[in-house]
Design brief:
- Helix 3 runs antiparallel to helix 6 (414-420).
- The radius of gyration is 69 Å and the shape is rod-shaped.
- Helix content is 85%, strand content 0%.
- By secondary structure, it is an all-alpha fold.
Length: 477
């Protein structure tokens, strides 16, 4: 029973604790939502009030700024002049009535009126002086602005000239560098040609020396052979003489033996045979030694000739190998040089293309910048013309409303109409219909584009004289 009571007490029914708590939470949530809606509504109303206050403040500021413009000030001056004229007319009328009513007024009253008139004139003079000071201050401000603008234009012009000079200097330096490189290339080619000519001349001299050396070697061989031949002939002649001497000696020996034989017949036969044998052996030995010596001399001559021819052939082969290696080395050096030249030419062309691309890019960027600046100037002129037109329309509406009010109050509207139709600029010349009804007060520009004054100065006369015309330029009144 206790458990069932507790479960019913904490259940979800309306009379339970949880139910009451949920009701309170729901009521609190609804109340907070309503409060949030009311806060949002108050915020919206407050934002609208602040926005209205901001709009009013902006309109008031615009109105105050609008009232500070020269055109509106001039129109207000004309309005004040109309009020003064009306007041003056009223004073004149009053004065007439007073004069008619009180012709015999005392001098004190007349003196008081004269003082009042003088005070009014003094007030008018003070106001005119203030207006003149404000006009002079405005004129000075405009002149300073024009001078600042002129200085800025001169600085920009000088900067453009300096940039042009810098670009021209870079171009001239680039051309000078190209000319120096071309001269260096021509000098290298000339030196290469001179080296090649010297090499050809050296080869010709080497060939001539080789021919002379070959001729000298052949002459030496021929002389050596002739000498050998003469030696052989001399040897043969000597051998003949020796043989003849031997024959003579043999004949003498025979004769001597014959004598000995006659003298000693018995003992001399063996001695004679022995002597003859010894003599024949000795002669044979001498002939064999001479033959062997002759063969050895011939072999020595042949060996010397073969060695000389081998050395000559080896020397020629070494010279040819050296010449071939030197030619290959020179060809490799020439190929390396020409490859380096081609690489330098290619890199130079790449550098020139990069420089040309940079110059083209700079020219394009400068042209685009000038086009953008020109476009911005045109857009600024359009916006300025539109603003001038809107200001003129607003001024005309304001002037019409003031003139209508002045007519209703019986004020003279002549000064107001003159101020209304004066046109922007405050000048004395005709109105420019195509320039937002501007009325300038200057002559045409001088030789430097500066604004000329209203009076005909010496500069204006110089411009008129240099324009080859008898008419005056600009507007002077």
């Amino acid at each position: 029973a206790v458990v069932s009571t507790q479960s019913g007490h904490y259940g979800r029914g309306g009379n339970t604790i949880v139910g009451k708590r949920n009701k309170r939470l729901n009521a609190r949530r609804i109340r907070e939502e309503q409060e949030e809606k009311e806060r949002q509504k108050l915020d919206i109303e407050e934002a609208e009030i602040k926005a209205a206050e901001r709009r009013a403040a902006i309109e008031h500021a615009k109105k105050l700024q609008y009232y500070q413009t020269d055109r509106v000030k001039g129109f207000h001056g004309a309005l004040l002049l109309s009020e003064v004229i009306k007041e003056r007319e009223a004073q004149i009328q009053l004065k007439k009535e007073i004069n008619n009513a009180m012709k015999n007024a005392d001098d004190h009253l007349l003196q008081w009126e004269e003082q009042q008139r003088q005070a009014a004139e003094k007030v008018e003079k003070d106001k005119a002086s203030v207006r003149e000071k404000e006009t002079a201050l405005l004129r000075k401000t405009q002149y300073e602005q024009a001078q600042d603008k002129k200085k800025i234009e001169i600085a920009e012009r000088v900067q453009d000239i300096e940039e042009g000079k810098a670009i021209q200097k870079d171009v001239e330096q680039f051309h000078r560098s190209n000319e120096a490189k071309a001269r260096e290339r021509e000098e290298k080619q000339r030196m290469l040609k001179e080296n090649y000519d010297q090499h050809l001349d050296l080869e010709c001299r080497i060939r001539d020396q080789q021919r002379i050396s070959d001729k000298q070697t052949d002459e030496e061989i021929r002389l050596y052979a002739n000498a050998k031949k003469k030696m052989a002939q001399l040897r043969k002649t000597r051998e003949g003489e020796l043989f003849q001497a031997f024959q003579n000696h043999q004949q003498a020996m025979v004769d001597h033996l014959a004598t000995l034989i006659k003298e000693q017949v018995d003992d001399e036969d063996s001695r004679i045979a022995k002597a003859v044998g010894e003599r024949d052996g000795k002669r044979q030995t001498e002939e064999e030694a001479a033959t062997q010596k002759r063969k050895e001399m011939q072999m020595s001559i042949l060996k010397h000739r073969q060695e000389t021819m081998g050395k000559h052939a080896q020397k020629n082969s070494e010279i040819k190998n050296d010449q071939t290696l030197d030619l290959q080395r020179r060809i490799a050096e020439d190929q390396t040089y020409f490859q380096g030249q081609e690489q330098r030419i290619a890199s130079k062309k790449v550098e020139e293309d990069e420089i040309q691309g940079i110059l083209s890019k700079q020219a394009s960027e400068k042209s685009k910048k000038q086009q953008v600046e020109k476009h911005n100037e045109l857009e600024a002129d359009k916006r300025s013309a539109q603003m001038v037109k809107e200001e003129e329309d607003e001024f005309q509406r304001y002037a019409d409303a003031v003139i209508d009010l002045a007519k209703e109050r019986g004020r003279p509207v002549g000064p107001l109409l003159k101020a209304k139709n004066a046109g922007a600029g405050g000048g004395s010349g005709p109105i420019f219909e195509g320039k937002s009804n501007l009325r300038p007060s200057y002559q045409a520009n001088d030789a430097y584009g500066n604004q000329l004054p209203r009076f005909a100065s010496g500069a204006a006369k110089n411009v008129n004289e240099s324009s080859a015309t008898n008419k005056r330029l600009g507007f002077v009144w």
